[in-house]
Structure formats: C-alpha cells, structure tokens
Amino acid sequence: MNGDATKGILGTAFLYTNKDTVSIGVGTLLSGLIKHKIRPYELLEYVKNHSMVRPYIQGGEPVEYLAHLIPEGGYRSMPKIVGNGVLVVGDAAQLVNAIHREGSNLAMTSGRLAAETILLAREVGDFSENTLDHYRVKLMESFVGQDLKKYKDATHHFDKFPQYFETYIPMMNRAFSQMLTVDGSSKWEKQKKILRDMGSFGEKVKIAWDLFRAWKVMT
C-alpha cells in the first residue's frame, strides 16, 4: 500500500494473510517520521483503521507487536565489507533493497557467499584481505550487488521529491477509483475528468517530467 498508508511519507504498508493470523505493517523513513512528527505506532493504527484494512481484523486480538530500524542506505552506504580476517554480511553491510522491501534474501545470500569464501580461505590457509576479497567480488556479481546498484539513487530521489507520494500516488488512486466504479458514466467521460483533475497543461508537463525521472532511477 502506497501513498495514504504512510500519510504521503516515502514508504509502504502491507497486509499478509497467514493461515491463522493476519500480519499488518508499515515502514517509512525515520527522517520522514521526525519531519512530520508522527510516532511509528500512530502510523500503524492509522493503517489498521483504514476502511480497506479494518474488516480483516474486526473481532481479532493482537498476537504480537514489534518495531525495528532497517538500514536502507543501500549501495551508496555500503561500508568496506572485507578486511584481514573480517567479512561483513547482511544488515551490517547495508544489504537492503528498499524499493522492493527486501532484506532477508540478500542477507542469506551474503551469508552463503561469506561461508564459501571462508572455506576457500581455510583451504589455502590464508585469511588476508586479498583472499577474502573473493566474497566481495562474488557478492557484487550476484543479484544482491546488481539490484543494489540498479536502485542506488531511487530512495534518495523519491525522498528529495515528495510529490510522488504526497500528490501522484493519491492522484492515481482517485483515477483508478473513477475508472473502476460503475456509476453510469462512460469511460470517455471518466478519462476526461481524470485529465482535468491533473491540472493545467504546464502541470501535466511537470507530471510527465517527474514520471520520466522516476523511470530513469528505477531502470
């Protein structure tokens, strides 16, 4: 869930249906919470009380609650991950793909590659940085390094230009709502209204330019 779920702050919310429970969560930048003076639990309660979410949890009882910080610095925040006798993996290495909300799979892959490198170093009896650098090379060649590099500027871009989450996503939500609501209006009438709601010609050009920039940082 994007946009209203985080009150326009860069981030997402989710609802997972399990066998016996429902998991609901919301994540956003710490800087966004501070800027808008919102506490994490307030944002979660806001999502839980949304008309789309509330029916799933009515009559239910909380089973577990947790909150934690996730290092979403990504590619540009990665520290030195190899040294003499040292390998850095998972969260400590900033291995989080914030755009796709992934971290566990990156951490597990880094752990596997680190273990393989340690076995190699043990075999040759050399735990120097030069030998252990095999881990860094393999990590950056894997999907972990490729994905982090692909989205290296995405989080910064969306944080720098808040209109994506504050304006454009709510605009898209309204447009889809209009198109998918059966109210006797033709699709042509609905499309004309959506175009009018996008503003003047200059505002439409700005939207198009922003969408192009978003596409650039995501591809």
From TrEMBL:
Which family is this sequence assigned to? Answer: Belongs to the ETF-QO/FixC family.
Domain FixC-like C-terminal residue range list: 155-218
Entry keywords, A to Z:
FAD, Flavoprotein, Oxidoreductase
Q: Which InterPro entries match?
A: FAD/NAD-bd_sf, FixC-like, FixC-like_C
- GO MF annotations for this entry? oxidoreductase activity
Q: Which cofactor does it need?
A: FAD
Q: Name one Pfam family in it.
A: ETF-QO_FixC_C
Recorded protein name is: FixC-like C-terminal domain-containing protein
Is DNA-binding among the key words of this record? no
